[in-house]
Amino acid sequence: MSLSAWWQGARYHFVPSSFLAVTAGSAVALGLERRFDAVNFLLVLAAVVINHVSLNLTDDYFDYKHAIDETDPAWRSAYSGGSGVLTGGLLSPQSVRRAFALGYVITGLIGLFLAWRVGPWVLAFLAVGLFSSIFYTAPPIRFGYRGIGEVVMLLNFGPVIGLGAFYVQTGRVTFPAFWATLPLGVLIFALICLNEIPDFTEDVRGGKRNLVARFGQQTGAILYVTGLGVAYLILAVGVGMRWMPVGCSGAFLTLPLALRSSQTVLRYKKEPDRVVFAQMDIVRIHNIVAMVLTLAYCLSSTAIGGPPGAGAVILGTTVLLYLPVAVKMAGR
Hints:
There is one protein chain. The chain is globular, with a radius of gyration of 19 Å. It is mainly alpha-helical. It is built from 14 helices and no strands. It has one domain (15-327).
């Protein structure tokens, strides 16, 4: 049970979908309300990173228990087929179960402390996040097995985390903050639908009835393209209606990646070794969009009058947390 096995099981390359929602939500609080508390910011970051790693371990554990991915297919990639630590015998199921249980306990304790610092509504965000993470694959609910996990993750990796981060800074939620965090959730919906396409055969065999397993790979490809379109539409409306800073329009620089990945998945949906390139593109799209939003709000005219150094803390922390992922992706 080496550290490298735990790092593999943690699947840190998926964790930016959590911490980038925090940095974006915190930047929105700074850009709209001129509010920033560094302690609250770091506590939320710690909670969501630990929770996301626990979620990844939970998914691996229950997929292994239900014989999903047990064949350890040759086409396994960083984005499909699980981490392989259980199917490959690198970690024991018992150790993985203890690890994710401990992670959820730590997440809960951080949430309770934040509720004491900020207010009781933190408990609502905490409850939704923990409930969704645990029961995404855990019985008896198993969102990911019933065709609703994709929507659950859309809500969690957009408004729940993003608005939660906004709330711990401002003590309230607003419609502009909701709209600003929504595109990140929609992009995660698209990412999950895409990741389910190469897993189609294994998921059907193991009884995992997600949207793609229920309706087929063609439907998965359509859902992916639709998700991308909706995310860009939300951004366009937000900037056009001046609900979001004009700098957020920089997110449209990812359109070439979106077009390329859409063409790939529509044409090669039954070829996992080709779909992996679209998977890499959607990860880049999500991460770039999140960073553009974070930067745009941190540099907005309202944010400039906020707490000194707040923008630098948000942006610097984003870079530090993202560095391991950037190194990994640069090597591909």
